[in-house]
Amino acid sequence: MKNKVLFRLLILVGIVNLGCQQEAFSQTVSSISAESHPVFDRVEENPRPETGDDGWYAYLSKNIKYSQDDRKAGVEGTVIVGFEIHADGSVHNVEILRGIGGESDQEAVRVVSAGPNWAPGKIGGEAVNTRMSMPIQFKLSGASDSNPLARSRETAIAKLYGKEGVVVIGYLPTASR
Fold first, then answer.
1. Per DSSP, what are the bridge partners of residue 141?
2. Do residues 148 and 93 make contact, with C-beta atoms less than 8 angstroms apart?
3. CB within 8 Å of 168: residues ≥ 6 apart
4. Can you tell me the distance from the alpha carbon of 29 to that of 17, in angstroms, rounded to the nearest whole number?
5. Do 67 and 73 touch, CB atoms closer than 8 A?
6. Which residues of 86-99 are buried (b: 16+ CB within 10 A; e: fewer)?
7. Of 26, 76, 97, 68, which is closest to residue 176 (Cα–Cα)?
């Protein structure tokens, strides 16, 4: 008889303890959800540069540089830059999603990180954090087009990550032509 009572008491204590742990877990999850700011890949209203698209592309064309070393080494291709536009319009977490090597990857990160603020993306009229990606193509002018398939592949990759991208044209040093 004592064993049955003791067994029932242990089961009751276990159930109460489990209920308390589950309640604490629920409170933790809800506090994390309330405090965190999710980043959305798709929104109803896409972020836009505060300077407008023309201003953004003017900023990029004025500030992005094709390094001398990359031009000498013949580094070409499409860099895909990923970044977040936060609800306040600021740019955060800029990273390379697809790089081409050389200094071009770091240059793409530098110029996007230093860029002007954006009008944030919106869902239901409310500003939200949004994940963006942008292709930046680095092309050499004057280089022999020995691989047209590679160039068309790079153009196709750029289109996958944005209908509009940036093309940076670099000129080969005169000794390399």
1. 171
2. no
3. 64, 66, 104, 136, 137, 138, 139
4. 18
5. no
6. beebebeebeeebb
7. 68
Structure tokens at 80: 């895909």
Q: Please return the burial class of 12, using the count of CB atoms within 10 Å of its CB with bins 0-12, 13-18 and 19+.
A: exposed
Q: Cα–chain-centroid distance for residue 135?
A: 11
pTM score, two decimals?
0.69
Residue 104 token pair: 């071009």
Q: How many residues does the chain have?
A: 177
Question: Rounded to an integer, what distance in angstroms lies between the CA atom of residue 74 and that of residue 105?
Answer: 14
Report yes or no: 90 and 84 within 8 Å, Cβ to Cβ: no
Ranges of residues in the chain with a pLDDT under 50 are 6, 9-10, 12-34, 176-177
